[in-house]
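sorry for the late reply, my laptop died twice this morning and i had to redo everyting from scratch. anyway the thing you sent over, i finally got around to it. pasting the sequence first so we're on the same page, its 432 residues, then the predicted structure underneath. double check i copied it right bc i was rushing
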Amino acid sequence: MPVESTRTRTVSRVFVARLVGTTVFDPLGDPVGRVHDVVALIQMRGEPRAVGLVIEVPGRRRVFLPLSRVTAIEPGAVITTGLVNIRRFEQRHVETLVVGELLDRVVTMRDGTGPVTVRDVAIERDRGMDWKVTRLFVQRGASGPLGLRRGETFMVRPEEVTGLAGSADQQGATALLATMEDLKPADLADVLSDLPLPRQIEVAAELSDERLADAVEELSTDDAVALLSGLEAARAADVLDAMQPDDAADLVSELPSPKAAELLALMEPEEAEDVRRLMAYDEYTAGGLMTTEPVILPPEATVATFLAQARKAEVTPALAAVAFVVRPPLESPTGRYLGIVHLQRALRERPQRMLGSVLDRDVGTVHAEDSIGTVTRLLATYNLTALAVLDDAGRLLGAVSVDDVLDHLMPDDWREADEAVTDEMIERSANG
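ok and here's the structure:
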């Protein structure tokens, strides 16, 4: 990271956007987590100060690390005293998250040259070992006086702008999204849940339907309902279209009836029909747990076709592990169910071999009204990642995947609760 030298001292200047993701080490060189954000105190009057780091420790727990316990910040490493409080970080109203709330905020130059957008923030340690916000890396969004080019970037001091302590409504999402680019859906959902709802909605507006749908599936019910309700109806319907039908049905069922009816009317007809059908089942039955979009193939399809379907990004790992073989039609409810082909078995066969010749017909199935207990027992009995759900005529209605079963067996608030509390509750349940 850049270092600014003077005759009297050396000052480390650290750019926050570049700091995100940096590994945090204890004095012995053992990693304890990664930097998630920087906590700052930005007031209407007075010099902005950086007071701590939000670091993510194993288990996706985010904890607060005071900068007073940071002994060095180096390229690719933050060194601490080794004292890390494991209590989950909870933001106070006087605190500002630099990445989550400050980057992309629109502020105004005091010299009259107009608005600029904050793209990065630099913090430096002073003689008293306190960290101060000393520089803002900003960008003009439009042509200014003297022929300044659109998109011009430059450094300013915090006191050279107004609006730094303003509302998050002034903040865009470009820089924040850059920090989320490589996050898995569950981690992205975790980041979103830490943001104020207006900020969540702003970030959601910049995400693709598919990316947002994956994240919404990982949010708690309350957070997902709040976020979906805050989106424009047409966008919310597009996100529901991109979600797994079972997750979409669970979410729509939690919405007020008028809102649910509005979104269902805006969804693609086929997707909406799947959601309506799933909503008719009790939540803790096979019908309420199933998705209508597993890998479904006819018996004359080849192993190569199955492998191609399993490779699709939109197919979850649990569903990709099994192909459900049926007579046409292939849309749920299908023609007569014949059996399954395990991915592992398919990998041992010739690509041109037909699935009908390698069927496993002895694996148990369930009906839509069967309980979650029955589903769980059969998944464990046959070592399956997904289980076929049939109607009385032997047609495939859908499949229950093991991840959906686990989600429903977990405590209702497990996504928001402290990991240690959740683990203890699960252990108590397992031990009777």
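Confidence is low (pLDDT under 50) at residues 1-11, 143-149.
thats about all i looked at so far, will dig more tmrw
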